[in-house]
Amino acid sequence: MDTENTPLSAGYHDVAPNMLATIVTCLEMTARPAPRANPPTDGLTVERWHSPSLNDYRALYRRVGEDWLWVSRAVMADDALLAIIGDPAVEIYAMMRDGERLGLLELDFREAGQCELSFFGLDQSLIGAGAGRILMNVAIEKAWEKPIQRFWVHTCHLDHPAALAFYQRSGFKPYKRMVEIFEDPRQTGKLRADAAQHFPILKSE
Fold first, then answer.
1. Whole-model pTM?
2. CB-based contacts of 192, cutoff 8 Å, min separation 6
3. What does the pLDDT profile of the chain (205 residues) look like in tens digits?
């Protein structure tokens, strides 16, 4: 992800009806934070997911991310996605219950000395029930097992409204803000037309 961009000038900037604009906040931690206790697990486990198939990976990616307008991995070319999820420097974990995948955690160690929390998401049924803390504790543990100096993540205002505060409670500190403009995937059929109802579609007349 490129975080070096030309700053926007002050004022209002029109966004085309077929496009979305979102505020992206980048956060980082430069030392392992004090541990936080897990809530009751209620049968949930977090397991390393070795060599997921494209179909299985995208199914979970959509399950946890479609209503927050996650689109990048849903439309990425197969060979490009396989190169990422098959890279030994990328670790993928699934939150499981009774053999069903209900959460996605992806840690990217491809840049020396750093770990990016690339994806972190839960099925809607788990949000607000403590599952996020369980998954984040695994993320922090696994990231800082490696010789890194920085663990970072980005989120945006299209994500769950509690996401930014959750990352901060977990020990991440905001350091940069950006605006991202991208094509609305609901208008192109790349995501369900009724996804992310909290963020309305604008259509040209």
1. 0.93
2. 66, 186
3. 667 778 889 999 899 999 999 999 999 999 999 989 999 888 999 999 999 999 999 999 999 999 999 999 999 999 999 999 999 999 999 999 999 999 999 999 999 999 999 999 999 999 988 999 999 999 999 999 999 999 999 999 999 999 999 999 999 999 999 999 999 999 999 899 999 988 899 986 5
